[in-house]
Design goal:
It is built from nine helices and ten strands. The protein is α/β, with parallel strands linked by helices. A six-stranded mixed β-sheet has the order 6-7-8-3-9-10, sandwiched between helices. A four-stranded antiparallel β-sheet has the order 2-1-4-5, with helices on one face. The structure holds adenosine-5'-diphosphate and magnesium ion (MG). GO terms for molecular function: ABC-type amino acid transporter activity; ATP binding; ATP hydrolysis activity.
Length: 259
């Protein structure tokens, strides 16, 4: 299945429901290659849901996602045909490896060393042997300043260091898109800057990124486009410059509330 779009990512009328509740109203969105999109909005507005739909961690209820020229549809479209369900799962697995995600709560594996955390995906997904995966893992850790902690366990690390490991683990799989869901919200204030700097460097290196953040300075500096969400939908989007004078009252109220 392929679809003609030059964008890296396209959402067409994507929705997400939990039972009777619609948490993401029909949403259209395109993300270009190399673009950095920052997503802002109040708690509960659907920011995490939007990101989780993109990589099918929370599959959309309806709509279509086109990623790198491949079309993906909600599982309900193939759920009843097991013979089709298996290859679809394989396609989704591939999609997920091409879309790296970093969460607020780190999600590093506590029982694995830092090196093993990064090497695991390289072995399972890229099929590298242990030695090659370990070497690549240390290389990736070096890029985020964590090589010397390769033998440590997550509990021995600060939140900022855990988040660097999570970033290295995602980047090791050479994703085409990186999703950051409030990656710095759980960090002590003095550790936020270091993680944001890694994200800035990644953006400057041309990575396509969707970043849910409350760090407005980061969004204003780094984003090509800012999206404001409220009540399960995109209310307004534009360049950081345009967000200096928002069009919608809800956007103005939100920006005022976080400043
Ligand atoms: P945000 O990230 O902007 O804070 P979320 O995307 O996490 O918002 O949540 C949007 C809405 O969806 C919220 O009202 C939340 O309670 C609801 N929601 C999220 N996940 C689930 C779930 N698994 N089951 C039911 N409701 C959910
Ligand atoms: Mg969230």
């Amino acid at each position: 299945m392929s679809a003609s779009t030059s964008s890296l990512l396209e959402l067409r009328q994507v929705t997400k429901q939990f039972g009777e509740t619609t948490v993401l109203h029909p949403t259209d969105l395109q993300v270009e290659r190399g673009e950095v999109v920052c997503v802002i909005g109040p708690s509960g507005s659907g920011k995490s849901t939007l990101l989780r739909c993109v990589n099918f961690i929370a599959p959309p209820t309806t709509g279509t996602i086109v990623f790198d020229g491949e079309e993906y549809r909600p599982p309900k479209d193939h759920r009843w045909i097991p013979a089709l369900g298996i290859p679809e799962e394989q396609r989704l697995t591939r999609l997920r490896t091409q879309v790296g995600m970093v969460f607020q709560q780190f999600n590093v594996f506590p029982h694995l060393t830092v090196r093993e955390n990064v090497a695991l995906g390289l072995r399972k997904t890229c099929g590298l042997g242990k030695k090659a995966a370990d070497a690549r893992a240390v290389e990736e850790l070096g890029k985020v300043g964590m090589a010397e902690k390769a033998a440590a366990y997550p509990e021995q690390l600060s939140g900022g260091q855990k988040q660097r490991v999570a970033i290295a683990r995602a980047l090791a799989l050479e994703p085409k898109l990186m999703l950051f869901d409030e990656a710095t919200s759980a960090l002590d204030p003095e550790l936020v800057g270091g993680v944001l700097q890694i994200m800035r460097d990644l953006a400057a290196g041309g990575m396509t990124m969707m970043v849910v953040t409350h760090e407005m300075r980061f969004a204003m500096d780094v984003a090509d486009r800012v999206i404001f969400m409220d009540r399960g939908g995109i209310v307004e989007q534009g360049t950081p410059e345009q967000f200096k004078s928002p069009q919608h009252e809800r956007t103005r109220a939100f920006l005022k509330s976080i400043n």
